[in-house]
Amino acid sequence: MYNETQNSTAEARRLKKRELDRKAQKLARERAKSRIAQLESMVDILQQDHSNAQITTLMDQLGKVTKERDNLLQVLDSLGSTIRRHFGDSTTGEPRSDTKSDPSQHASPAQSTPSERIVPITTRRSTSETSSSTILELSINPPPPDPFTCDGWNYTVSNEPYPTTMAFNNSILPPTGNGFIPTQPLLPDNHTPPEVVDVIIPKASVLCPCSSPTSRGANFHGVKPNIWRAINEVLVKPTKLSAKEIAIEEYNAEDMPVRAILEGWDSIERAGKMTPTWRKLRKADELCFTNCADTERLAAMRICHLLIMYHGDPTLERRATLPRWYWNRPSQALPHSYGIDFFVWPGFRERLIFCQHQYCANSFWELLQTNLKILWSDSFQDTFYHNAHTGKYHISPLFEQRIRNINAWTMSTDFFTHFPELSEDIPAYMGISTSLPSPPYQNQL
């Protein structure tokens, strides 16, 4: 009897517990359904209030990201093609040493050590090659953010030579309305001690003429200074010009180079007309162009002054005063010696960025001075005229137009017997003709 009573009590407890469990589960399901309904209602309200604005914002962000991706792919296209081209050149021919110098003095970037591994870069398409007689201009719109501020030259500098897989050619990016995102240099290793920044960037991996202690900007025990190092020490990095300085530079821009050739730099100094910019150009002229003919000296000073003015006033309006072939190539976003920017030939500028130490000996500059030719059929006296009313000299409009044509900047054939590889970058002097082939751009200004 006792056992039956105990069993019935236990059964009643189980039934009661089961009933409570069912009620608890039912309440939980109802709460979940209520919460889901509340969330769905909230989503509907948010979609009604903000859907259009959110979609517009997201689409704008997607468009910007897509544009940045396309710009980066274009830069990779250009660098990839130059790397493949140089790799092909390095396998078909030995790199040459500089003229009149010991081959052991130069480090050839085209030679790889056994421990180095060449990593090909795959691109979506190949860019076209330019001919040896025509150098294309680079036409790009300014990328955001503004790349024309002086910060463009304040890059992180590495004194290590560039890998041999980085190279150059005459490939020009396809004309496009998109700008290019500046290439950001790699950050230095945190464990590497800071080095003194040199004007020669990057340094040579072995001792070469521009790295020798006797190759500084001043004479050392009677040893002639290295011209390439000296010119980079003279030019240094650009400094921003004030509005007053810009006005003075523009006022004397044409008079100064003509007067320097006709009367000498000392006469300008005595007259108190020299500015910091023209003092730089005076030293550059005395270092690099004293053995050039007067026509070539005037052309070089005029075009270099235009570039210095742009670097000191880096605006779109100022850039428009430069010939388009003088605009920066994508490779010029890499850290490099500042003097490279002043060479007029785009392909040669790119070559120097990757292997400047093949051309840093004074013998190169001696050949450059004696072989540089501007295709100008008239005399030096026809390159300028004198304004009797103001007493100032002005450059002839015809000569100004001529030096803005890249095909007018040539080298005599003797130069290419010493540097045959540069025939891909620099037009050869074939004599004076009545007309010049037009560069592959309608607007040469």
UniProtKB/TrEMBL annotation:
Biased composition (Polar residues): 1-10, 104-115
InterPro entries (alphabetical): DUF3425 (IPR021833)
Region Disordered, annotated ranges: 1-23, 84-143
Top-level taxon of the source organism: Eukaryota
Skewed-composition ranges (Low complexity): 121-139
Record-given protein name: BZIP domain-containing protein
